[in-house]
Every structure is written in structure tokens, then in C-alpha cells.
Write a structure and sequence with these properties.
The protein is of the alpha/beta class. The protein has 8 helices and 11 strands.
Length: 224
Amino acid sequence: MADVLVIEDDDRIRLSLVLALQDEGYHTRGASTAEEGIAEQRRNPADTVLVDLMLPGVDGYECIRELRRTDGVPIVVVSARDDTHDIVAALEAGADDYLVKPVAVKELSARLRALRRRMRAVAAPVLGLRFGELEVLPEAGEVRLRDEPVPVTRTEFRLLCELAQHAGRVLSRQQLLERVWDYVVGDERLVDVHIGRLRQKIEDDTSAPRHLVTVRGLGYRLQR
């Protein structure tokens, strides 16, 4: 049975999430502050952590960063904030996914199952793929630019591998959600945010990308 820790300061929302996820078959517990949640995770690690951003004292962003310093646990933000800036900031802090309140429990449960499948998935061996000065090494779990390692998150790496293995082909946002996030339904902004972050890391000029290009109305393509 999967173990979920809910870090949420609103007692009503926290209890609602804990009880609803228990009904879905999860072993679930709650914490009302970042400090309490971090201590609980270190004392009794959960399989997945849900984090609200608007926590008293230490906010959700710092909570995520603190968890990430010592823990590779999947982290999902559940927040009333729906601005793309907030999504970017949470993902930059180390979150794996982002859901906007109010959250349908069935969707949350499906996201948690998909996230766990992604973390357990083992990719088939694939040789290194080169795109000029950019090299994607699926077997080694590395991205290199001009022979220097590029720091990428797990999701960024999966996204880049998917595009690299279909080099020259346009993949839609929905296709990428299904293949990278394992979501049948999801917020396409997750794709856009990760594409933007990858461009900052692999492109010399993000306004005129050479490798990771947008095909208007269709999706994204990684080109040689």
C-alpha cells in the first residue's frame, strides 16, 4: 500500500485529502507545517509527499527544497495558485508535479499512480544521441553540451529522451503528457514549463532555439 504524506495548513483540506486518499487505498497522514512535514518525512519516509505552497512560517517552496536536499521522494504540489510563474517556481524548487485546487480525488489518485509508475520505470537501452554540440545519453542518464554535463531533473531528462528518440518528428503536448508523465488527461502547461526550462539549459539563445523548436499549433520537435 502506497504511503502519502500531506503537508497542508488548512485543517479542513488536509483532513479531506487524508480521508479521501485513504478511501482510494493509500496509507495517508498529514502535517500542518513545513517543519512538521519535513521532520515526519525524515522520521518515517512516505512514498509520495503532497505540499501546499502557502504554508505558515517556512513556505511550500522552501519545504520542497529542504526535502530535495536529502530525499528523492516524488513531490506533488497541491495549491490554489494557478499562475504559470508559481508552477515554474515549484518545479524549479524540485516538485515533480503540480495540481490546482480544488482537486478531484480520482484525478489526484490517478496522478499519484502515474508518478509512481514513472519512478519505477526502467527505460530500454538506447545509445547516445547527438544533436550538434548537444548529446543525450539515456543509458548513462546524462545530458552533455559541448562535452560538459547539463544538470537536469528526472522529468526534464525523460522529456528530452522522448524527443531525442523521435528526432525530427513533432510531438504534441498531449503525446508528451502521455509518454513522459503517463497522463491521459493533464495540464499541458507542465509540458510548456519543462520545455522552457530545458531551453534555458541547452540553447544559447532561447528566443531562437536551434535544437528544441516549437511547431506552432502542433507541438515540439528536437532537431539535429
